[in-house]
Design a protein that fits this description.
Elements lengths: L11 H14 L3 H12 L5 H16 L4 E3 L6 E7 L7 E8 L6 E10 L3 H24 L7 E4 L2 E7 L6 H24 L4 H16 L5
Antiparallel strand pairs: 1-2, 2-3, 3-4, 4-6, 5-6
Length: 214
């Protein structure tokens, strides 16, 4: 969305209140004023669009994960505990693009642990997951998006599949994370025997692709 520079004359008391609210929300003075005016005049801003998308994501995730408070409109973080000794925490962080083109945004998955064994398992799972997703995306005529795997951290861009509503984008992201989280939890429940469960999980992922590619 195009932006231009304008000069406004405002009362000192108004600027003070705006700055205090902007600080609480983790945004800038200009961005907050833009949002206030847009809401007052019924204009849709990127921040409003992202909030609508995240509301849909939260609906589809339901009570399966703990939603964390965010100071940025472009960021949503969810976390859950794995059924593994010491119950390590895994987090899913979605950051949306203000003006999406090829990608809607980025998904980052992180496991919170000091255990080298857990980090090794995490990395093993995501090597498998990338391979499994790539195979099914290629059938749909899509290349796997940009991704990166480091020690206990997985990053994947989210594909923009075209002209869809914010609600559909939210549902697509929510369904993808739901499917991914199920696979992660199944893997960590019994890593040695995950091969027996993998075909069914891949089938579910394929069913999701029939409706949404993300």
């Amino acid at each position: 969305m195009k932006r231009s520079v304008y000069s406004l004359v405002l009362m000192d008391e108004v600027i003070k209140a705006v700055d205090e609210q902007a600080y609480r929300l983790g945004t800038s003075r200009s961005n907050l004023i833009n949002q206030i005016l847009a809401e007052r005049l019924s204009c849709v801003t990127p921040e409003m669009r992202m909030r609508d998308i995240f509301s849909c994501v939260e609906e589809f995730i339901g009570g399966a994960m703990q939603i964390q408070q965010q100071r940025s409109a472009s960021l949503l973080t969810m976390r859950t505990a794995l059924e593994y000794k010491y119950r390590p925490t895994i987090s899913y962080k979605v950051e949306l693009e203000r003006s999406p083109k090829k990608y809607l945004g980025t998904l980052r998955v992180h496991i919170r642990t000091q255990s080298d064994r857990l980090i090794e398992l995490f990395n093993t799972f995501f090597v498998y997951r990338v391979r499994a997703e790539s195979a099914q995306l290629s059938i749909m005529g899509c290349d796997y998006p940009e991704w990166e795997l480091t020690s206990g951290n997985f990053t994947r861009r989210l594909l923009n599949s075209g002209e869809v509503t914010d609600e559909q984008i939210g549902e697509a992201i929510g369904k993808y994370i739901e499917n991914l989280n199920l696979s992660v939890k199944t893997f960590f429940t019994d890593p040695r025997n995950f091969g027996a469960a993998a075909p069914e999980l891949e089938r579910r992922y394929g069913q999701m692709l029939e409706k949404y590619i993300v």
